[in-house]
Amino acid sequence: MDHATHIANQIVSQFDPAVIQRAIALYESSPAEFTSYQQDPVVFCEKYFNETYTDDVKALMESVRDHEVTIGVSANATGKSHGASRVAIWFYKSHPGAQVYMAAAPPFTNLENILWGHIEDIYNRYSLFEADEKTSLKISASPVSFIAGLTIPTSGTSHQREAKFSGKHAPYLLFIVDEGDAVPDEVYRGIESCMSGGLKVRLLIMFNPRHESGEVYRMIRDKEANVVHLSAFNHPNVRGGKDVIPGAVTQEATVRRINKWCRPLVTGEESNGECFDLPPFLVGAVAKDRKGAPYAPLKPGWYKI
């Protein structure tokens, strides 16, 4: 049995015959060089985008490959949105008939300028999309295979927001949600309703932790997702003190945030989930405040956020 027939047999109970035939046609017409990377998102992205990625971003990519739900908990400017856009392209190109839906918490500019902005940059710079058609917030190979940006309505009822994210079905399906802790719970209910069928269905949620509430924190608490941490302390810019990845988090910014947002633990105070042991490479590091005055050098030991 060839792979195209295998696809048809597995999804016959979920899709009408016309959709099945289109999925088979897409598989047979897809370049073998793309489909061969279904298990290698990092290698795919390194090859076709000529980029290197931090270990944390690689872990995020591989988690999407291996787990139904991935939650990326990230410091600012560690490359989560950049990496997520690459994951979207890998999934779309290596899985024939795939549909990728991308969303971000309001306002609309969160989606347009950041997540979708990365997608458009890839579309404009690389030759992977020669056979694709681009319209507003959509890149498509056919009516049944595409990457699309979905806006989250700020008006209307919760049922209307849930409905906008419901009814999505494809042999391969990926949802990507940025600023996920600020996304209404009904959006996740809509996505959940789409995740019971298909050959491979994935959900990637990313956010910078602010307050522990909502559906994303419930998923983490109940261990319903694989959690990947993208820490500033792991970033090569911060570890080496040089901006080897332009535009990403810097050591200066990290040291400033430690001074502004954290304090050393006092004698006898217990550490918990809101505490960290200062990495050795930041001991003695100095940053300046916004007025240009230097903070005192960081001392070793535990800090409370």
Tally of separate helices: 12
Which regions contain 5 or more consecutive residues with pLDDT less than 50?
Answer: 10-14, 25-29
Secondary-structure element pattern, one letter each: HHHHHEHEHEEEHEHEHEHHEEE
Radius of gyration: 21 Å
Oligomer: single chain
Order of neighbouring strands in the sheet with most strands: 3-4-5-2-6-7-1-8
Q: What structural class should be given to the helix and strand makeup?
A: alpha/beta
The average pLDDT score comes to 90
Q: Tell me the distance between the termini.
A: 57 Å
DSSP summary, beta strand count: 11
**Shape summary:** globular
User: Strand-residue fraction?
Assistant: 15-25%
Largest sheet: 8 strands, mixed
| Helicity range | 25-40%
Give an overview in words.
- The protein has helices at 3-11, 17-29, 32-35, 41-49, 55-66, 80-94, 109-125, 158-164, 185-192, 215-221, 236-240, 251-261; strands spanning 69-74, 98-104, 133-135, 138-142, 145-149, 172-178, 200-207, 226-230, 263-264, 275-277, 302-304.
- With 305 residues, it is α/β, with parallel strands linked by helices.
- The strands form two sheets. It has an eight-stranded mixed β-sheet with strand order 3-4-5-2-6-7-1-8. The chain has a three-stranded antiparallel β-sheet with strand order 9-11-10.
- The radius of gyration is 21 Å and the shape is globular.
- The termini are far apart.
- The relative contact order is 0.13.
- Residues 10-14 and 25-29 have low confidence and may be disordered.
